[in-house]
Amino acid sequence: MTAPTLFDYKEVVGPDIIEELTILASHVGNRSIKMVNSTAVGGGVAEMLHRIVPLLNDMGIQTKWDVIKGDDEFFEITKTFHNALQGKEEYFHEDVFKTYLAYNEKNNDEMDFDEDLIVIHDPQPAALIHWHQNRKNRWVWRCHIDMSQPNPQLWSFLKPYVEKYDAAIFSSALFSTELSIPQYRFYPAIDPLADKNRELDASYVDSVLAKYGIPRDKPIVTQISRYDPWKDPVGVVQAFKMARKYVDCRLLLVGDKAADDPEAEKILEKVKAEAGDDPDIHILLFSPSIATEINAFQRASDIVLQKSLREGFALTVSEALWKGRPVIGGAVGGIPAQIIDGYTGLLVHSVEGASLGIRALLTQPDFSKKLGENGHQRVKDEFLITKNLKRYLLLLLALDRPQEQTIFLN
Ligand code: UDP
After folding, report:
1. Are 316 and 297 in contact, with CB atoms under 8 Å apart?
2. Is the beta carbon of 319 within 6 A of some atom in ligand 1?
3. 267 lines ligand 1 (CB under 6 A)
4. 346-380: pLDDT as tens digits
């Protein structure tokens, strides 16, 4: 299937939004962007880049996407960074920072950075800026992770690199921190026309569930997430087991493995141990998963859980809300931006809370339906890819005029 063009979104978002984007693009003019991250598959960042890069190109912004290279040693380090920035206690030996910098330097030597705007995603490639201090173009650091309580030792190492950028972008105002550079908030976004989110035939949904041996005899409660401690898959199993004493249901855990995630297998073992031999718990690991199948799992679910303990945003929440599913989410990071408790879903703070949420939603179908409908509208208003296109266009305009608070387009 060919990538959608901007005009394909008209039916979903309406003509005014498309017109607004076209006008903004004409003001931006002939520009180029390079996106840099650390994995081409797995996780929300890769998911979004796959969709936004072709669309920016379609709008006349020449956009490239480069993935930095690393081996197990580097990705072990950057996974520890990721966890520590999300608040995990950790002590770093100086050698770790040296190794991290050596990998960044090696990548820098092998890449070029000629575009007008360089967008560096997350901490893995954050130090690349070090070798570009006398640059002519603009560099921004796009942080997707929950930085509400970063590990102080790591943050004091990374912060001087971040402050060399022209701006930093966070997924929530809650993650912004004292920095000497301008900060912007970009909510992440989903693509309604992607295989992950487009409408599916009911028969296809049935066939996917049958393929993986998941009976449709009782309600299905699902969490779709990398096997990562912050996604709390073990807590999901515990919540399910508590709820199932009162309401009959199945649990479906679906996860894939990002190329830069060495931790997944270990967490999966813990999840399996917690699940035991319960025939109503279905645990799937993909590497990578198929987008239409993930879409089918979401559509087949009576409840979607995202019981995260820390969370940059959770695209999975927007994906499920877009499909009108009632969602129970951990009240952390970017999830409360999507879930307004009791209106577009339920927010929870504990295993017990998640279990009560499952019981409440399965016993009150009208309430569940209403949450799903409201959630769909919220995603339409705030979390679709067209909104993100607008943010990138505005960013290009704002970076051109760093001193101006208001930009007049004429
Ligand atoms: N995902 C997937 N297959 C899986 C698990 C997750 O395709 O087995 C997708 C999920 O649908 C979402 C993205 O990976 O689009 C995860 O993004 P999110 O922001 O929820 O979490 P992250 O992994 O970036 O922390």
Report:
1. no
2. yes
3. no
4. 999 999 999 999 999 999 999 999 999 999 999 99
